[in-house]
Amino acid sequence: MQNVTALKGQDIEFMCRINNLGKHMLLTICAQFHSDTNSALQVFRQRDKYEVRPRVNNDEWILIVKNVQVFRQRDKYEVRPRVNNDEWILIVKNVQESDVGGYSCQLNTDPILSRAGYLHLRVPPYVARTTASAVEVREGHNVTLSCRAFGNPPPTVVWRRQDRQIIRFNGATGYGASVFNGSDLMLTKVSRKHMSEYVCVASNGIPPDESWSVKLHVTFEPIVIPQSKVVVAIEGGQATLVCNVEAWPRPTMTWEKDGEEVFDSTKYALSQQVSEKYRSMHILTIKDIGPDQYGTYRCTAVNDNGVHFADIIVKGKMIASSGFVLSQLGPFLPILFTKRKSE
């Protein structure tokens, strides 16, 4: 018998050649499976230790036994004699990891004659589905992303960021690389800039390669930055107030005017735009501005990690009938601006 190397799912054959069989009638093909040392497969020829009688014709039947389970020909296993019973072929169908092991052909001589072969299985890489697909870590802490890949031969694992950015191993500005080789990717002192989708690719030379994505979420308290701290608007017109926010998880946003919360209404319109990952833009539009809508507006962001807010002052601007522009600066006296005549 010879060793056999096969791909997962293939059918394989072990051949046992017997010369001068003579009076020795007991042919036993045994298998000791690598994945289960308590399991063995035995194949007996008809009229030997066991007898199976066909009803349709006089062809020789084969009894195939694995522990107490009996297999029919053409199921998982098949045995075919050929060349006047001098050669016996054991066929193992749809081979899996559980079929890996040593196979032997034995004859009941004294001493027993035996020949052995081994089934090696080549398995394309695969990533265990127990591998986490999302990981959350507090900003400033360390985290390890793991990719548990299997196959035969054992696969190599390469990590990269889905957005093609550099993988920083030590803080937001620490040393980094475009790829990392190894099953465990360790990141220290993570910042919000580490937030991304990380992809591990397992390969062992047997196609196809397999990839697995892990989303890294870095949690931190909100930071609110107003686009402008002062907005000047004409009475009867409209004003747009914008707060840019960085936060994860995504925050709950509120707008207030002089301490009272502002909602969507005939006077106000609230909207937001999510730009990327942890950044978002929150917009308050003031419609048809009247005197009571000038004042201080506050946008507040809240998540599980903290609270942050910013104030925006809305001031009035009026156009006099004489062509002069009057800018009303809150409670201060109006400042007179002269409109220059065109030449």
UniProtKB/TrEMBL annotation:
UniProt keywords, alphabetically: Cell membrane, Disulfide bond, Glycoprotein, Immunoglobulin domain, Membrane, Repeat, Signal
Locations listed in the record: Cell membrane
Primary site of residence: membrane
Stretches assigned to the Ig-like domain: 125-219, 222-315
Signal peptide: none
Any single GO CC term annotated in Swiss-Prot or TrEMBL for this entry: neuron projection
SMART domains xref list: IG, IGc2
Gene3D superfamilies named in the record: Immunoglobulins (2.60.40.10)
Protein name (database record): Lachesin
Lineage of the organism: Eukaryota, Metazoa, Ecdysozoa, Nematoda, Chromadorea
